[in-house]
């Protein structure tokens, strides 16, 4: 029986996207050498092997996923999605939240639950596929694609090369070669890889591998083993060699086998003749003899996962760590060992003589066997080699119902309630536990059991290797977890004793009023404590003993799938006390199956962590987070118990982790942000390259100073959610509870590597090539393609690519560029002080792959110019943009439908085919809004950028790099053709609507600054509490986008701005690191915190807006530079003199940027001085940004920024020159990297 353990989640990206994404020829499956089409992912061993889009019924559909590689793969963290033909809609059809191993050659089947294949599917979905065209993709949840197929008229970003033909009803698309030959062809061209099959053959987990076990035959070095037998030890073989003459004579040519006949002839041959010849013959004979010294082959180490797939009686050598003591089971003869791939049982030929403790690393050589359906390696103790003591490997969190074949041999942890009575076995006490997903057997040895009692109703956490002893003959039963080590068993006594006294009085129905307790005779004294349990009885329909025993309290995992509003009852341990999850007072509880958030009823005291609660109440899901909302008498305490083991969040946070206690390992890449409430927030780049938002309530005692940028941490907390909109599976975050949840694993590493740069600078040769100096940071890294590099997040990578977007496009830091090769594209964050290369420069870049706002980023440590090269040809897109095109250079052709402007950023909707494509004109591109006119035909080239994670509009956007990327044609349906504003569009850049040349057209709104915003007093964000209910003006830097607005840092605090009503049209025009000011009403928002509510769109101003209130144009003011800029950009109004912008009371028409200027006059108290200094720096920053924008319009270099002395008190992430500083280019990382 083939078995494999689940692979570690933390290695998911590496296993799927690196180890298995090799070229087809590297695998043991039939391949064809065909040119690979250019897509953003590499050929994979984990493939979409067959798809059917309909049969007699449209619901007769399935998707088959196959492992065509040489190693088992864990599907945890992957999903299968379906995209419509244009890609406008992408829906999930299946995912694996818990471990699901897929062995080599095996398949898993995802089926339409309403079709004929529902009975044989492994995963079911609702909704269907379009037979005329669409695509199915296997990818990391919300992340990189592993494999995909598109058919029919599909044009979405999941299509590999040319689309496959649309299969007719009742037929399927099958990956070649197909049938019993398997599905190993993957050239990344769907038309080449797939063929229409008239006889679909869906296969799931229960089907045998196809082709049947291809790897075992080549892998077993059985070939050398026969060779010794093939060399007949009788030295008659050499004696045959002298008699070649007789061989031709008997015409034994037809077949070599007649050599058996000549064997008789050599015997009579004179022994003298052989005697001389043997001297020559033995010399050839020894040569074969050393060749069979392939006997060292057994010393080649086989992974345990590989060994488990080999036939019985195969001799293998493995290395791994003992998860039990050697000889801990079966009277000193059985143990378990585990490596990074799987686990297996060891069976000694005799009872152990010299026991080894668990946690010992060993090398073992033995013979594979299957004992009672358990995969076993039979060994001799003398053949064991001691390799050290690294410690016992971490146990995999597992639901009781999932402790089956896929995990056999692996160390797991189970949580559940004891069901039934205990049995005494030779290896310990055996009981069954259940967390609601199905019972699992555990056998607890005397060392682990200690003084604990395993009685029905006890809540148990058990850790140990999963074994099997199947006596049914089916091979599918008898799984049990062997708990042998001290501390691997935790038992919480059943709560029955506390409630039983309360149930004995017959007046249980009237148990709610405490007087009924006096109705009983003398027992009331003992019953007086019972009122603490009486709330439990008050809402239990049955006698109290029943709920306390657990049947009416469902496992938390099961209630999470019930409808909102359903009243449920659960029992769990408090994992986070009220207040740790923000406001209102929420707490979290968990059991072995899952976790859930509970809103503490008003008037109830706060339970402490570790308290066991019985909760009954309705389900709610505010902002997507599932909560229970019990009444005062719907929550009762039932003692205390151990906290559930934290779940690893290697693949990020999602619905499967929400409410649970989780552990996240990752790097903090920017300084945390602090809100006015004292709460802090940050973004941690997890081990799988995914950004995870992390929060800490002020009550946790954690502050900004608790964390170091660049350090690597292990963080423990509660997974929560605040979705961007109803039904959205986003907004997940980790809530830290206190300082104990933060463990520093490694100090900042990248910073020291920068120190070698000066050593290289003094070289005279280094001067003309400053970008090459970073090469001093370390040894060479092998160059790989961008597509492969994107899958490697645990070590440095090196790529060679061409710059497609310069350093001014994405922000003002001058450090962010985009590069592309033939396989994919990526954003690169250049090292500080590195000269930015221009478009078309060919670079060699080495560094570490991470992510920025969900999009890939290469943080460069070493940049070398390789000369100039041809800019990659843009990919032609004829429909919607997709996440698969992120950072690539693309071109579209369509009609401009709508244009909006805010400051010097504009946003347009372009109709391409039947889809709307979002186009954004970035300030750094220097493209005036007059370049895009509504109703006109346009051909655009640009870089595709992924939507910000918190944006309500989830579409990627196209960023043209300069005016040369826009080719404006004539009107396609009206318009004047002369650039005039012909419709009702208004240009808020002036006080009147523009009509004629240079305006917006159609009905679009160019939302600049022309409308007069209401006047309001300037207020610091730290002082909002003093002006609650008033209309005020605030300003600062945008630190984070939210679903309904953004957060702003003004140097005194970070505050939340909410846009409502007409002001929501500004949402798509605001980005992190924008200098902004708003006018709105200070109000208490839905989360209980104070914020500023803005409803008037004219009350939102960018600091870069060159047309602020009261500003006169350069022509009007007599400034020749500004007048020239005004003439160069007709229709664009320009602001004040850039030098005056930093000195005027209102910063040159930037209202709100000088908020609180009067406080400077009150210098004298140290605390006030600190605040003033920070705010002066913020004003300087805003002024510098305005100056830079105006100078850009006028074609002049911006004036110098504030003096270096100001840098000591600068706003985090902002350099002294008024641009985003060394951490400013990355400040978005604290919210997911700035983009």
From TrEMBL:
<feature type="compositionally biased region" description="Low complexity">
    <location>
        <begin position="529"/>
        <end position="552"/>
    </location>
</feature>
<feature type="region of interest" description="Disordered">
    <location>
        <begin position="169"/>
        <end position="297"/>
    </location>
</feature>
<feature type="region of interest" description="Disordered">
    <location>
        <begin position="952"/>
        <end position="1014"/>
    </location>
</feature>
<keyword id="KW-0378">Hydrolase</keyword>
<feature type="compositionally biased region" description="Pro residues">
    <location>
        <begin position="241"/>
        <end position="295"/>
    </location>
</feature>
<feature type="compositionally biased region" description="Gly residues">
    <location>
        <begin position="970"/>
        <end position="982"/>
    </location>
</feature>
<feature type="compositionally biased region" description="Pro residues">
    <location>
        <begin position="749"/>
        <end position="767"/>
    </location>
</feature>
<feature type="compositionally biased region" description="Low complexity">
    <location>
        <begin position="768"/>
        <end position="778"/>
    </location>
</feature>
<feature type="compositionally biased region" description="Low complexity">
    <location>
        <begin position="983"/>
        <end position="995"/>
    </location>
</feature>
<feature type="region of interest" description="Disordered">
    <location>
        <begin position="1193"/>
        <end position="1235"/>
    </location>
</feature>
<feature type="compositionally biased region" description="Pro residues">
    <location>
        <begin position="208"/>
        <end position="231"/>
    </location>
</feature>
<keyword id="KW-0732">Signal</keyword>
<feature type="region of interest" description="Disordered">
    <location>
        <begin position="749"/>
        <end position="778"/>
    </location>
</feature>
<keyword id="KW-0472">Membrane</keyword>
<feature type="domain" description="LTD">
    <location>
        <begin position="43"/>
        <end position="152"/>
    </location>
</feature>
<dbReference type="GO" id="GO:0004519">
    <property type="term" value="F:endonuclease activity"/>
</dbReference>
<dbReference type="InterPro" id="IPR001322">
    <property type="entry name" value="Lamin_tail_dom"/>
</dbReference>
<feature type="compositionally biased region" description="Gly residues">
    <location>
        <begin position="996"/>
        <end position="1007"/>
    </location>
</feature>
<feature type="signal peptide">
    <location>
        <begin position="1"/>
        <end position="28"/>
    </location>
</feature>
<feature type="compositionally biased region" description="Pro residues">
    <location>
        <begin position="492"/>
        <end position="512"/>
    </location>
</feature>
<keyword id="KW-0255">Endonuclease</keyword>
<feature type="region of interest" description="Disordered">
    <location>
        <begin position="489"/>
        <end position="557"/>
    </location>
</feature>
<keyword id="KW-0812">Transmembrane</keyword>
<protein>
    <submittedName>
        <fullName>Endonuclease/exonuclease/phosphatase</fullName>
    </submittedName>
</protein>
<dbReference type="Pfam" id="PF00932">
    <property type="entry name" value="LTD"/>
</dbReference>
<keyword id="KW-1133">Transmembrane helix</keyword>
<dbReference type="GO" id="GO:0004527">
    <property type="term" value="F:exonuclease activity"/>
</dbReference>
<keyword id="KW-0269">Exonuclease</keyword>
<keyword id="KW-0540">Nuclease</keyword>
<feature type="transmembrane region" description="Helical">
    <location>
        <begin position="1153"/>
        <end position="1173"/>
    </location>
</feature>
